[in-house]
Design brief:
Elements lengths: L3 E6 L9 E9 L2 E11 L4 E2 L4 E2 L6 H24 L6 H9 L7 H14 L3 H18 L11 H13 L5 H20 L29 H8 L6 H15 L5 H6 L5 E2 L2 E5 L6 E5 L2 H8 L24 H25 L10 H10 L5 H8 L4 H6 L2 H16 L2
Antiparallel strand pairs: 1-2, 2-3, 4-5, 6-7, 7-8
Helix pairs in contact: 3-4, 3-6, 4-6, 8-11, 8-12
Keywords: Coiled coil, DNA integration, DNA recombination, DNA-binding
Organism: Zunongwangia profunda
Family: Belongs to the 'phage' integrase family.
Amino acid sequence: MSSNAKIVLRKKPNKEGLYPLAIRITKNRRSTYQYIGHYIELEDWDEKNIRVKKSHINFKTLNNLLSLKLSELNNALITLQSEQKDASANQIKKEIYSSGINATFFELAQEHLDDLESTEKLNRLSTDKAWLSFIIKYHNSKQLSFQEIDERFLKKLMLTLKVKYSLSETSIMNILVFVRLLFNRAIKYKIVSRELYPFGGDKIKIKFPETTKVGLNILEIQQIENLINLKPSEIHTRNVWLFSFNFAGMRVSDVLRTKWSDIYDNRLHYRMHKNAKLLSLKIPEKVLKILDQYKDDKRSDDDFVFPELKKADPENAKDLYNKRKTATKRFNDNLKSISKKAKINKKITMHIARHSFGNIAGDAIHPLMLQKLYRHSDLKTTLNYQANFIHKEADDALDSVINF
């Protein structure tokens, strides 16, 4: 399918309430945006004729600029097609604009966010938007060149994030990872010299603090299973949590996306939303009892098992994401009251189901098998879920020496 370009006014206002003019590049129904660098009022844009209205003081100049930019891009697209370069919208944009030597940090950041939005990586989009907002608040200007991002800049940023905004060490490291990502992209695009790279060696080091998420033990899970004084919403939350736990800590996004058509031959067959990896698991007896509670609401084989996504638009990634996010918050709120009723002092969230399975697995499951169940790319990630077992090994080793 051929690529095309169109001038658009993006409906994302800046702090002054003005909207950015951009060129939308589309290929195979995937789009990305190249910003012109000018902002106008919403009422100054003629959507039908794709022009700046006469009501804008510089309408002639802006329209001439838009025509020029669109013409330049179309000529570049023709050149790429003549060279038989079949690429995605994002690759086309990078090919054409990679020589943008004056691109700023925030322009490249916006390009990154647009890439995430166009590829429907909405969870990552939400997270990276949050990290970017802290950098904007710190710098207090959208004019930031990569040459300005040196060790001194990053050290002051880290100090401000810790002292003024009270961010955790983990959050600060995540923001540095975000900056590093864009800096590497700027080097690739030849926007900044590799010699100015402020990370690694004796420069800025990104080191995450060790963290532990304490899962539940067998007795605590049994306490939750046996609770009888729960409200209907809490019973539903418990069902979702136990469904997750019994399927090796299945992520809540995958639990809510489960359809009746995924269940056949006494197995659950599903593709993980996070990494698109396939998994097939035997359905435990406990899960069969949970499924029985939802069969009366089954509208078709292609219907969702749980109700949260039944009214979502399956073609609208944002709608699906927002409904999953809202549901997860509600589940976590309910889990607080469930933990109180079960007299469990540990913090329980949907994600703790995953850690609970890993901790209880202990030496019953080899780390490589748990890695397979979790579909982790790195074994180190899996070992974090077996923290309690690792502690037990250390405790046993200590006892073997001092108990004499």
